[in-house]
Amino acid sequence: MEHYEVLFIVPGAMKDEEAAETIGKVKKLLEDLGAKITKEENWGRKSLAYQIKHETQGIYGLFEFDMEKDKLEELNKRMRLSREILRHLVIKARIKTAEEVMEDEKVEEKIAARKKEAMKQELDEAEQEKKEEAEIKPKKVVEEEAKPVEVKVPTPEDEKVSMEDLDKKLDELLNEDIE
Fold this sequence. Notes:
single chain, 5 helices, elongated, alpha+beta, 54% helix, Alpha-Beta Plaits, 2 domains, four-stranded antiparallel beta sheet
């Protein structure tokens, strides 16, 4: 007996009860062909990367099982002919030893710890930037306030301009543009 894994997609337009029935039919098909199911998963409804038979969503199911190699062709044929299954893929799976499972768990723990540390570092950096910005802004305000502000107050002499002076200035400007 060989160890296999089958992943299949049921149309997303089906109701959850109908999809559960279809998954049950696949399970019964495997059992009818003499497969011993070792793992069963329902991954639920997900968006498809591209349309399959005008469907944009699918319900994913996964079975791991042990079965004779000569019955694999019959399984593929029946799943391919089923109208209730959009796509399927059967692969030969390798059974992990207890040591490999432990090693995988250790790796996943290390990855989770690194992600947590990276998130913490990002948060610390963001808080530090906010503190620095808060410290810089008051200094700028103080520096700007310390500069003397020059305000020119108009005097009555500045306001008086004779019409003759205005005419002369206007003539000068017009003559410069013409030349």
